[in-house]
């Protein structure tokens, strides 16, 4: 019988090496040696020249309905970009076979490129932005519906090059929604270049305020205090707006009138490679994401705040120069009635030698001000923290202080799995807050591993075994029983096929739980090949899960540098989860009937309770078994049960932006 083989994706390395990942489906034939898969691959280079390529069976999964699923990697070198895979499963008396070839064109297509990295982004954006017909329709709609909201566009100006200043002003005056005022706070002093540009405009919506230059925060405040609009829109003096920016915001406010903080997608405009100017680096954002905002200010283009909110906060002072928008975003968010993300690219951040879009070295004071903005926000929430520079430019890492809860680590055993390495890594790296390590499972399974457990107890008195009656074999029942007996404030559920790599993992994992709005924290998971298994999960409408950036090198910061920073996600995999014990039990723990999706179902209940699920990348946890996470193999029955329990999944509410492809977790553009 023929094996169904299809190429899934291609992983690229910086040295020119690549891995072509194939997915193979065939009827299950057991696991005896005669039924083990035998794969052979040939790399194709220079026309038809072939040479053997190394293959690795990454996953071998028994699926529901009697099917078997293989994931096989073919390793290519020296910039080879084509290959053929031959696969046989069975014995000489019979079996299954299949073959699949990947051409250079297919290989290029299978390379995942995020919206930020896509070389065709300029063409994509020009095809998807509002054309003249749509802009005319918007103007007609505005005339017929009226213009209820008055926007105040506030722009501090300081010796801006004439071409940049004129382009910025023109982009605002060209808005299809015309009820706005443009407040230019000119702190340039005597500057003929700026004065000549501003004097050339004769538009009643434009107001120029001369101000002494006292720093960008104070200059911005001059514009805020002089403005009269219902909403304030903040634009840098050398950047550009799309002509329908205010229209899109007004449309959002019409449907959500209590919106106090709004922001949009954005991109860059310039010449990153010295060639002609173009649009590039599209950033389609994950909605309101507090943990990402604690890492860097991703909301500030295009940021709009309501007069209602601004009138109730203290405006950023000189200490926030360079991060005044960051400080403002945090202060507004703390009292916002509603926060809205507008999924359209409405702001173009100009790339030039002096812009912060190019380097943080252009404004080093802004990095320090950003740290002060984060620290002040957390202090207002009653959380003490120390802020450090993050892994990427203009980013931060939060270390939570005075947060030392006791932790119970639960290792559930429901199969005859070898958990020696898991226990060894725990004993080596479970320092400080770890109060106890509970190995929990049915009596027969724990007896089978009695020697390993006894040796672990001798090494560390924190290790204990909880034996359950033989009938309790579901993961949900095992974990729930252990949580009821645990003594820690926090329970960390750790699968027995996981391995801890450093001493900092537990502190990094439980840190976000210092904030009461966080309900679950999970680490970045690495697969056995050292690549990313997942940085949290997204859910599709049919209940299938989408791992975030699976297969990337963990040193790659990923789309919008997600892999370098904590990220609030829809759901987290069950391989390792940290939860408050009392909250876990009050919610009923893991529910049976969802199989491998029980951990995901708990995350959805946390979301219903207005709790965040955070994926923390600082100290990854390695999975010793498969490359894929078990949730990817959930049965149809489990997915249907999940949708029945949480109908909102069918509405597609767990994907961050409609402009991104929801078939994978690489944040690719929809075509």
Output the keywords.
single chain, 10-stranded mixed β-sheet, 30 strands, about 675 residues, 19 helices, Immunoglobulin-like, about 25% helix, Spore Coat Polysaccharide Biosynthesis Protein SpsA, Chain A, 3 domains
Structural notes for this entry:
The protein folds into 3 domains: 4-110, Immunoglobulin-like (Sandwich); 121-359, Spore Coat Polysaccharide Biosynthesis Protein SpsA, Chain A; 407-651, Spore Coat Polysaccharide Biosynthesis Protein SpsA, Chain A (Alpha-Beta Complex). The protein is built from 19 helices and 30 strands. Strands 19, 20, 21, 22, 23, 24, 25, 28, 29 and 30 form a 10-stranded mixed sheet that branches. Helix 12 packs parallel to helix 14. The longest helix has 17 residues, at 364-380. The radius of gyration is 28 Å and the shape is globular.
């Amino acid at each position: 019988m023929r094996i169904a083989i299809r190429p899934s994706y291609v992983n690229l390395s910086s040295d020119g090496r690549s891995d072509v990942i194939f997915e193979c489906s065939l009827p299950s034939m057991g696991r005896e040696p005669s039924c083990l898969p035998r794969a052979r691959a040939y790399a194709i280079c220079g026309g038809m020249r072939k040479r053997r390529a190394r293959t690795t069976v990454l996953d071998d999964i028994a699926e529901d309905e009697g099917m078997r699923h293989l994931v096989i990697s073919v390793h290519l070198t020296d910039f080879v970009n084509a290959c053929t895979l031959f696969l046989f499963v069975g014995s000489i008396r019979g079996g299954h076979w299949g073959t699949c070839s990947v051409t250079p064109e297919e290989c290029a297509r299978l390379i995942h490129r995020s919206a930020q990295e896509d070389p065709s982004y300029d063409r994509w954006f020009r095809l998807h932005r509002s054309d003249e017909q749509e802009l005319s329709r918007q103007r007609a709609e505005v005339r017929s519906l009226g213009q209820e909201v008055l926007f105040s566009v506030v722009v501090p100006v300081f010796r801006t090059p004439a071409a940049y200043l004129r382009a910025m002003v023109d982009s605002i005056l060209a808005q299809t929604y015309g009820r706005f005022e443009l407040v230019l706070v000119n702190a340039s002093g005597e500057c003929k270049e700026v004065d000549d540009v501003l004097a050339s405009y004769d538009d009643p919506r434009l107001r120029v305020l001369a101000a002494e230059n006292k720093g960008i925060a104070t200059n911005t405040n001059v514009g805020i205090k002089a403005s009269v609009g219902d909403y304030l829109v903040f634009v840098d003096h050398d950047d550009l707006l799309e002509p329908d920016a205010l229209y899109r915001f007004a449309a959002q406010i019409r449907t959500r009138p209590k919106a106090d903080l709004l922001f949009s997608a954005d991109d860059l405009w310039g010449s990153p490679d010295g060639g002609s100017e173009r649009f590039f680096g599209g950033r389609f954002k994950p909605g309101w994401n507090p943990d990402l905002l604690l890492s860097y200010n991703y909301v500030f283009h295009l940021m709009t705040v309501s007069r209602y909110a601004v009138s109730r906060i203290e405006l950023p002072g000189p200490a926030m120069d360079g991060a005044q928008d960051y400080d403002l975003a945090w202060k507004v968010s703390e009292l916002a009635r509603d926060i809205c993300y507008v999924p359209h690219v409405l702001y173009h951040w100009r790339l030039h030698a002096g812009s912060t879009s190019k380097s943080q070295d252009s404004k080093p004071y802004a990095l320090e001000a950003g740290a002060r903005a984060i620290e002040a926000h957390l202090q207002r929430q009653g959380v003490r923290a120390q802020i450090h520079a993050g892994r990427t430019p203009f980013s931060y890492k939060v270390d939570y202080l005075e947060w030392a809860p006791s932790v119970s680590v639960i290792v559930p055993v429901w199969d005859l799995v070898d958990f020696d390495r898991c226990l060894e890594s725990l004993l080596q790296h479970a320092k400080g807050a770890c109060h106890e390590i509970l190995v929990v499972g049915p009596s027969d399974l724990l007896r089978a591993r009695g020697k390993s457990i006894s040796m672990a107890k001798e090494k560390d008195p924190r290790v204990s075994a909880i034996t359950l009656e033989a009938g309790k074999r579901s993961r949900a029942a095992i974990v729930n029983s252990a949580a009821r007996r645990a003594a820690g404030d926090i329970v960390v559920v750790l699968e027995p096929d996981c391995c801890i790599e450093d001493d900092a993992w537990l502190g990094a994992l439980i840190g976000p739980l210092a904030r009461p709005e966080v309900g679950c924290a999970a680490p970045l998971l690495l697969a056995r090949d050292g690549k990313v298994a997942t940085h949290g999960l997204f859910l599709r409408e049919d209940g299938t899960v989408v791992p975030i950036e699976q297969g990337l090198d963990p040193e790659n910061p990923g789309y919008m540098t997600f892999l370098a920073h904590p990220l609030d996600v829809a759901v987290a995999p069950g391989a390792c989860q940290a939860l408050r014990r009392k909250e876990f039990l009050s919610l009923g723990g893991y529910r049976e009937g969802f199989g491998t999706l029980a951990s995901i179902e708990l995350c959805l209940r946390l979301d219903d309770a207005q709790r965040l699920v955070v994926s923390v990348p600082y100290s990854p946890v390695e999975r010793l078994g498969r490359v894929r996470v078990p949730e990817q193999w959930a049965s149809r029955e489990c997915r249907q049960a999940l949708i029945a329990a949480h109908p909102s999944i069918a509405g597609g509410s767990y994907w961050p932006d409609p402009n991104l492809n929801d078939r994978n977790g690489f944040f690719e553009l929809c075509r």
